[in-house]
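Help! Submission page says 'invalid entity' but I think these are all valid:
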Amino acid sequence: MLEILNQNETIHTIVTVGSMSLFFVGLFGLLTQKHLIKVFMSIAIMETSLFLFFIGVMFDKNFTAPIVDATHTTFTNMNDPIPHAMILTAIVIGMAVLALGVSFAIEYYRVTQNSEIDKMNGLKN
Amino acid sequence: MISSILFIALPLLFGFATPLFSKFGKNGVAYSSTLMQIFLLYLASYLIMTTSSPHIEIIAIAPPLGISFVLNKVSLFFVLIFTFLMTLFSLYYLSYRKTDAFKDETKFFILINMLLASAIGLVLSSDIFNIYVFFEIAGISAYILSAYTKTAQALEAGLKYLITGAIASLFLLFAIMLIYIHIGSLNLAIIAQNFETLPYNIKILISIFLLIGFGFKVEIFPLNFWVVDVYQGSTSIINALFSGIVVKAYLFVFFHILYLFIPSGEFSLFLIYLGAISMLVAEIVGLRQTDIKRVFAYSSLGQVALIFTAFAMQNQEAVQSALFIVASHSIAKFIIFLAITTIYKEENNFHIDTLKKFHSPFLKVIIVIAMLSLLGIPLFMGFVGKFLILKSLALHSLVGVLSIIILASLIEAVYYFKLIGFLFSKEHKRETVTISFTQKIVFIVLAFLILFIGLLPFSISNFLSQSASIMLNSTQYIGDLL
């Protein structure tokens, strides 16, 4: 009965629906939240949802981890390792951008006592 | 054999080794990094003289696995522009740093070397995930540069730049993921081979995500609301880099990918109108600005949109004109923003009226040359590019776009002549501006190039026409890479 949950298609559907709803949670936050830190959190949520989506969709339950050992001597029946490498790189980059953003926000608050994105209007003619 | 990796590895190495060079004092950093850039400039010009066949460098394993860099005529053209401008920037900065804001120079040189490395990396990479990585490196160094002075305005500019940049990279990453899920490769050649066979809705989805991701960075109409604020908040010397190097790298990558993935030119008309409308909107809004950095930010938007239109036409003559405008606009905007840096000594006062209050015949002549070139007056470099694009539009009977561009150029002419009038008005008492010897050399070299190529466009038009056909020839590129 619960066999159906253990099929690739079901897993991929659940991952896609879940991560895309997470993506829209992030997008909603990005469009509605005014506080700078919350904006960065929304961006982080969107980013994470993409990572989840990609890793989840590229996962095949019939395949093993891509590691060659005594029992697995060839590169057959293994999950693709490239998405993992990509996502690791993307996580590091996303982390760096986020840290930079938060440090800008802190510095901006120190200078102007303002942390709301819609009050950022020092640059007007 | 000269390796193309040098162009990326050397600036990155010097960027991260900057703390080591700072053992030799602040001059050690400045001089070593300038020397490295001069070496790269020599390398690029040497290659451009000698190379006829594309030079492909693959790190690790064999194609399609591995990271590859392609150095052909057109990418070499961009590399030459970037290294040339960055060298002049460093030379200018060598004397500028004694007088002004950037006290912590070592950090500054890390950032500009990273910017150079990532701009060259964007142009050379033939792997879409590598393009994403360089996209982000260029972004991060540009965010820090724009918030460099840590004033309220600079931080606001940095924040706006960072938030829009983060959103852009999200969409680019989404597009790359969809490509990998459906094609199973990150190599541009393999993606290009299989892109046509994708289901129609997936193709459209990927195209839209790529357009949004790059659209933020190539400053195209609905997505360019942040650009002007960033230009206003950052210091004007940094704006020279943004307008001369960063945008050009993104523009090249976007159209390089577009030509590879969609050689049939399916969305060409849509992109042409997008570019033309962007140009018109930018010039109209630019008309009533009073802050000089905002004025030239809008002018940059307009010119970049013109380049966008020319690239979007996807035929040889138009691409050749686009490359012409890339070169002329980079050089002219470099002159303008460096001149603004020299003239405007007071912080927070960038009103255009200051142009009435300085005295320096040398600088005035240089600025007028740059402005006339931006306007596309005959005998200046900007004329050739504009003439070619208008001719190409007329040949393809796109009269609507043609009239939009002419209208936008006329509007641009109005505020440029207003500024030139300010330069030569007699009503104010004028203060003398001092320019150091190296800075004069930089201005003279740039202005000389504008006049020289303006008078003898044939000296480079042959090369650019070959570059354009290489850029458009996607089957050749795929064949070389595999």
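Support: the input was valid. A stray whitespace character was the problem, and the output above is from the cleaned input. Chain A touches chain B through 35 residues (CB under 8 Å).
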